[in-house]
Amino acid sequence: MALSTSATADHIYATGLRNQWHPVLPSSFVAPGAMRRVTVLGEQWLLFRRADGTLALLADRCPHRGAPLSLGKHLGDRVACRYHGVEVATDGTVASVPGLPGCALEGRRLVASLPVREVAGAVLAYFGDERHPEPVELTVPAPLDDPEIEPILCYAEWQAPWRYIMENLLDPMHGAFLHRESHTMYDGDTTAKFRVRETDRGYFFEKTDQRGVNFDWVELCRTGVDWVDLSIPYPPSAGPGGAFGIVGMVCPVDAERTGVFFWRYRRVSGWQRDTWRFLYRTLIEERHWAVLEQDRVLLEALPADADQHEHLYQHDLGLVRLRRLLRARAEQQSASAPPG
C-alpha cells in the first residue's frame, strides 16, 4: 500500500523527496517490545519493534476510525488500537476486530507499511509514492559497511529546514570561519578556489589549492539514500587512525525540523579501535558536539526565506549544484504523481 503523492514541487522540496530511503531514528531509540511515534516528510508513522527485534514502520492511523496506533497496546507481533481494540499486524494487515470478529476488515491490508533496514545503528526506511511503491536498491555508505572502519553515530534534531542542513554540508568554506576556534579546523587559508567534480554516484565539491588541512572537500552521494562524506585532518594527539571521516544524512521531519545523523569514523582495528573509542568517548566527543552546536545555532537562526535574498559567489558552487539537483527531483516527482 503506497502513499499518494499529489503534492506540488514546492511542497516536496520543503518536506523531503520521495522514492528513496531516509534515516528515521537511531536503532537504540526503539527497544525490543517497544514502539514510538515518528514524523518523517511531514507525516506521522509508528516505528514498531517486535519482541524478536524485527522492525516495522506503519502509518500511525487505525483503519477503523483513524485514531493514532501509537496510543495503542504493543501485543508482540501487532498493535491494538486503544479506541476500539482493532489489531494491526506489522505488515499493515488487520489481524483482528475484537468488537465484531469475522467482519470485512479482517485480513485486509489497510495500513501503509514501509520497508525498513538497520544500518550502523540507524533505522532507514523507503518512502515511495503511488507509482514507485517498491524500494529502490540501497547501497550502504562504504565507511558504514567496512569491518576495518569504526563508525560512531551521533544524532540530534534541529529546528531548521532539511535542505539548509544539506547545503551547510556542501559548504566546506564555512569550516574556516564558523569553526575557526575548533581543535581540528583552526588551520588553513581563509581564501580558496573550488571546483565541482562529477562522479558516478554524485559529485565532489573541493578546494583546488588546499588538501588535507581543514574541511577541504565533501562528496555528495546518491546510492538509494542521500549522504555526504567528508574528512577532517586530525593531530597525532587524537590517537591512531589518521584523518577523521564523517558520513552525514538528514531526515526531513517536516518543513521546519530535521533529524541529523553524523557517523564519525576512523580506519582502525585491534587495540587501535579500542583506543579510538576510548579517546572519543572521554575527550573528543564533547568537542565535536561543540562544533555541531555552532552549526545548529547558526542554521536555526537563518530566516525561512534566507535562500530568497542571497548574493552568491564562487564558493557556493556546491550548494547551487545541490539546489538544482533537489529541485529537479521535486519537480519530476510532482509531475509524475497521479491527480489528488
SSE blueprint and pairings:
Elements: H1 9-15, E1 20-26, E2 35-40, E3 43-49, E4 55-59, E5 73-74, E6 78-80, E7 87-89, E8 94-96, E9 113-114, E10 116-119, E11 122-127, E12 149-158, H2 162-169, E13 194-199, E14 202-207, E15 217-222, E16 226-232, E17 244-252, E18 258-267, H3 271-301, H4 317-336
Antiparallel strand pairs: 1-11, 2-3, 3-4, 4-9, 5-6, 6-7, 7-8, 10-11, 12-18, 13-14, 14-15, 15-16, 16-17, 17-18
Question: What does this entry show, briefly?
Answer:
This protein has 4 helices and 18 strands. With 340 residues, the chain is an alpha+beta fold. The strands form 4 sheets. It has a 7-stranded antiparallel sheet. Strands 2-3-4-9 form a 4-stranded antiparallel sheet, with no helix packed on it. Strands 5-6-7-8 form a 4-stranded antiparallel sheet, with no helix packed on it.
Give the C-level CATH assignment of the largest domain: Alpha Beta
CATH architecture of the largest domain: Alpha-Beta Complex
Low-confidence stretches: 1-5
Number of strands: 18
Q: What is the percentage of strand-forming residues?
A: 25-35%
Task: Count helical runs.
Answer: 4
Seen as an oligomer or otherwise, the chain set is single chain
Pfam family, one: Rieske
Domain Rieske: 21-125
InterPro entries: Cholesterol_7-desaturase, Rieske_2Fe-2S, Rieske_2Fe-2S_sf, VanA_C_cat
GO molecular function, one term: monooxygenase activity
